[in-house]
Amino acid sequence: MIMSDCFILSHVIHAYCLKRTPHIMFIIDPTFGHYVHLEECIRDPRLLMPFPPEFVVCSQPCHGLNVGNWSHANYFICNPIMRYFQCITFDDGDETFFAGRIGLGYNTKIDEHVLVHINYKEKNLETRSYELNCPKKHVNGEEWYPIDPPPRPVAPVQPTFVNGKIYWIVETNLGPVSARCEIVAFDVKTEEFEVLQGPPCAHGVGHMTILELYGTLCISYSGQSRNTVDLWMMKDAGIWFMEYHIVLDELSKKAAPLAVDPTDGRILLNTGLSLGYYDPKTAAFETLVIIEGIPDYPDYILSAMKV
Fold first, then answer.
1. pTM score
2. How many domains would you assign to the chain?
3. Cα(194)–Cα(185) distance, rounded to whole angstroms?
4. To the nearest whole number, what is the mean pLDDT of the chain?
């Protein structure tokens, strides 16, 4: 039994991933795959060479790999721990950009990482009409091949991978009107999409992110008007529960959690120009690093990623 793949994977998750302090690195220069550990930046904040907010977007890790982009249409896949870096190229020559355009997953059946590339052939916000392309390829493969596109348009929010599926937040400004937020899920084994109901978050008011915590699909919803961040977790049968309600004295528009420390329950929170831990027990926020002297970018999001 202990030699089976499912037991080994479960052991790794529980003994290593779920019981250690989150490992955070900053993207200093994505062109050459230059990363710096959080601990180094705490000791010397001068190591942080910030990019404008639209320049760097990076995903959560999928078995050690992160996918991201910089300077709009330049995409990459990396493993910062192993110092691995590879540029991603597209056969269709599509140079449009939006965060969430690339999904990264892992197919346990064939032991391969998978890239899913979603792009818009047409997008009209006035008529809510759109048309999607959706090619896919293995990370180690050379060619992209087309698959059926998702049944909903996807929002410019970085997707996440949880338990065999890649999840995107649905774009509320296109397609059919929904009373609550929706999620598109792609099963990497069956190559099929499905639409799921999300938590009861208001559309177009706050900032939403989708992420994985404790092996569970989560939605973060931050509201600048209330200086709050609500973290919803999806339980069995698609039921959503608000796991955390974070209240801060001041909050940037695009504040979002990165991870939860399983050793003490503190939430690693990116508030825009700072990165720090929020303690749900005491409601205290401990700043780890802060970026100063960027008045032109009040909503700048630090280029940090969990690895």
1. 0.86
2. 1
3. 5
4. 82
